[in-house]
What we know:
The protein is an alpha+beta fold. Helix content is 34%, strand content 12%. The chain has a five-stranded antiparallel β-sheet, with no helix packed on it. A hairpin with a 4-residue loop joins strand 10 and strand 11. Helix 6 runs antiparallel to helix 7. The longest helix is centred in the middle third of the chain and has 20 residues. The radius of gyration is 31 Å and the shape is globular. The relative contact order is 0.06.
Amino acid sequence: GWQSLDIGSMVELPAMDRGKLHGVIRWIGQSGDNNSIMFAGVELDDPVTTGTNGLWQGKQRFTCVEGRAVFPRLDQCQPDGRFGPSETKAVSNGDRPSDHRVATTPVGAGDSEKERALRKLKASDVRVTGDIIAHLPQKMEEFGQIGRWRALVERLGYSGSDIRALVSPEAVDLGASLLTVLWHWTENKAATFGQLGHALCDIRSDDIAFTLLVPALDKASAQIAPKGIASNSQSSRHSQNGVEESQPLPGAYPPAPRVMVGRNKGIQGHYNSCYMDSTLFAMFAHSLAFDGALHKVMHTETGAAEGVQKHLLENIVNPLRAKGFVSSKHIMSLRHEFDRLGDVKGLTDAEKDPEEFLNLMWQTILKADPFLKLKAPQHDDSTYIYQLFVQPDGDKKVATVQELLERSFSESELTLREAPSVLVLQMPRFGRQFKPFDKIIPSLTLDITNLLTEGSRQCGLCGQAASITCHSCRKELNSSRANDDGKRAAGRVRNRSLLQGNGSHANYCDVCSKQVHRHRTRRGHKPQRI
């Protein structure tokens, strides 16, 4: 009856004109008018004219497609009669699909291709790969069955309390909720194609099993060595903390589609590896910016670079994106390879700066082209990482990345010869003890217009197109900001007043440049044409 219903329960509702409505409970609560009656927010399989997008009594109770949300009294809901008790018990951690519900009748000549394929699928003990899990919610949504996720995970061995422990009460996306439970299933249980195929067929989702799992099983089976040759790599492997380690995942995976929260998420740390763990996570978890180096065709005499490239892609980047977790074992293997191939020692046990292993990886091993092409007064330079160097700024304790980038280029008299495809910045530091700023605020968007050698710039005084830049004015402005303690003569401050509109830039149109450099203290400056 309705007393056993909970969030995530599959239910049916009476409907005057169409028999019964079916859906899943997404919210349970009380009305603002009557606190003694419990109501249910139900996301229907099909939209109705009186449905909403989850809005009820002026509040967004949950989010769904417009027309699919209704809010009946909880006692009007009944368990979905289409899904009776399972013909078999839920698959447990140690069960094999072949222990139950494998076809017991001979395959007859009258069986269709789909039936034969599904029989083979249900009998498979090949482990499910991360890309299948990532695509399952989308496939269920295509078939209009995403609301059946509760029934699916129950048949994989998850009770209502298990689901509540894994899925946040604030979760509004059924697809994300399904992914959360399925990632847990693949990481903590013997997740096989057979088990998932059984579960999908049990909830009458044969079409999804046939279109998604059958082709994937054929592909996975072709990559597995015959029995007798297969090594332990085909069996379940666990790291020291009991988390199941992922097998190598070849190919290309999209960035992780969800926020990684909870235990055993991210890259597992071990023995001063934080410098590498955090950098690799930032580079690859949610970004494709650096993937070119992973898929670059390489030909080296020893094959060492190809090995590093393959290990980084298949054992670190792809598992991070597909399953949300990378074991410390794979990071340590990468550290040993870097230590063996490069001249930077201590990469396996000592604290290091990210720039040390990044330069080694990009320049020495993967032979990537430098991302930054810099122009200095005396020569041009190319690099992978730009270290921000700025002079101490008096009592200033907080700075933005945009401000530090502009100041560093200005004080070093640098410009960018071209806009970089990737910009990797290392924050300023002066040893372990002294930090130039208490806080550095990230700038989500960086404007490099004024840093480009050939870029169009704006006069900092009148706003017209700039035609002249002056490095001496930049130094004067930055020096004045750093040393101005409020005790200088008013005349000195007025002397700098013309520079204040420029930020860290000293870019002028012809008229404003003449006015600025007319002052006696700037007659020795050497302005340059942009």
